[in-house]
Amino acid sequence: MNRSHKRHPQTHLPDPNMFWDFHVGNPEGFHELLHLFSDRGTPATLRHINAYSGHTYKFTTTDGCFKYVKIHIKPTQGVQNLTKEESVRIAGENPDFLIQDMFEAIERGDYPTWKVYVQVMGPEQAENYRWNIFDMTKVWPHQDFPLRQIGKLTLNRNPNNYFTDIEQAAFSPSNMVPGVAPSADPMLQARLFAYPDAARYRLGTNYQQLPTNAAKAPVYCPFQRDGSMNFSGNYGADPNYVCSSLKPAKFYQDIKGVGPKTLNVMTEHERWVGEVINFTTHVTDEDFVQPAALWEVIKKEPGHEERFFGNVAVHLSKVKSDRLRHEVYAYFSRISPDLGEGVKEATEGLVVS
């Protein structure tokens, strides 16, 4: 999806033809398009926007038990969005508005805060749930799995130097602390590798030694050493492997008293997981149930429905193929007939004009 949203290889311009061609070929992603082209797609500031893990993770205990979780981060300042007209004006007047707003708020001591919530699901619930919990295009309805607050996030310091603190930062879902683990979500599994690989390409093989990325807790990993721009002690004379009698090391499970049985993942549930993630689903009416529910929420706000039609039309009307545009209308209609008709009417009006 990210590649289809990138610039065209020849023109280096944003390309609506690639964009909509991808989504017609992967219509389960229309759920996200309702977010993107609604007011939610143009947040008023970075201080007034929700954040989500998207992926399913695990919260684990030392005895080997775990629960599946999805993480939600909600601003205590509330959610505020812009209309298309407001966002276009601000982008033209001050393209750096979002950065400036965040920096100045922190600088004056108006620290933005977010409450952190999780939805929690047991493995046995996952096996019998209506939707595949490893599918990023699906959410867990709150009536089934209510939000439970676990913490609060506060941004209370600006970077001392933008390059060293921000440009060199390397985020990855593989950066985890004990008690958090990845699920079998295929996209998450790919990102566990891809993000560090991109960081090595962008920042260098020892990017984890940079102050903005360095671990705050002690890390002993003597087989990860050497490489260009290594400014650590490089583990001195320690052997470049673990389990050495010359340099004995204690492992996490030994310190925590975790037995071998708790580390064994070959359970009946894991066998179920393997079957689920190896099955490539095909698009059915189930893929349009959750987008339909979101569309009903959007329609409750006065004027939001028309703004959605207008936002889609400005973009979709640039698609040259009549066939492709009408396939888009058909998929919007599978979400709701009035949605498909509204998008079609607004878009074709711009095409004709």
Automatic annotation (TrEMBL):
<dbReference type="Pfam" id="PF00199">
    <property type="entry name" value="Catalase"/>
</dbReference>
<dbReference type="Pfam" id="PF06628">
    <property type="entry name" value="Catalase-rel"/>
</dbReference>
<dbReference type="GO" id="GO:0004096">
    <property type="term" value="F:catalase activity"/>
</dbReference>
<dbReference type="GO" id="GO:0042744">
    <property type="term" value="P:hydrogen peroxide catabolic process"/>
</dbReference>
<dbReference type="GO" id="GO:0042542">
    <property type="term" value="P:response to hydrogen peroxide"/>
</dbReference>
<feature type="domain" description="Catalase core">
    <location>
        <begin position="1"/>
        <end position="250"/>
    </location>
</feature>
<keyword id="KW-0376">Hydrogen peroxide</keyword>
<dbReference type="InterPro" id="IPR011614">
    <property type="entry name" value="Catalase_core"/>
</dbReference>
<protein>
    <recommendedName>
        <fullName>Catalase core domain-containing protein</fullName>
    </recommendedName>
</protein>
<dbReference type="GO" id="GO:0046872">
    <property type="term" value="F:metal ion binding"/>
</dbReference>
<dbReference type="InterPro" id="IPR018028">
    <property type="entry name" value="Catalase"/>
</dbReference>
<keyword id="KW-0408">Iron</keyword>
<dbReference type="InterPro" id="IPR020835">
    <property type="entry name" value="Catalase_sf"/>
</dbReference>
<keyword id="KW-0560">Oxidoreductase</keyword>
<keyword id="KW-0575">Peroxidase</keyword>
<dbReference type="GO" id="GO:0005777">
    <property type="term" value="C:peroxisome"/>
</dbReference>
<dbReference type="GO" id="GO:0005739">
    <property type="term" value="C:mitochondrion"/>
</dbReference>
<dbReference type="GO" id="GO:0020037">
    <property type="term" value="F:heme binding"/>
</dbReference>
<keyword id="KW-0349">Heme</keyword>
<keyword id="KW-0479">Metal-binding</keyword>
<dbReference type="InterPro" id="IPR010582">
    <property type="entry name" value="Catalase_immune_responsive"/>
</dbReference>
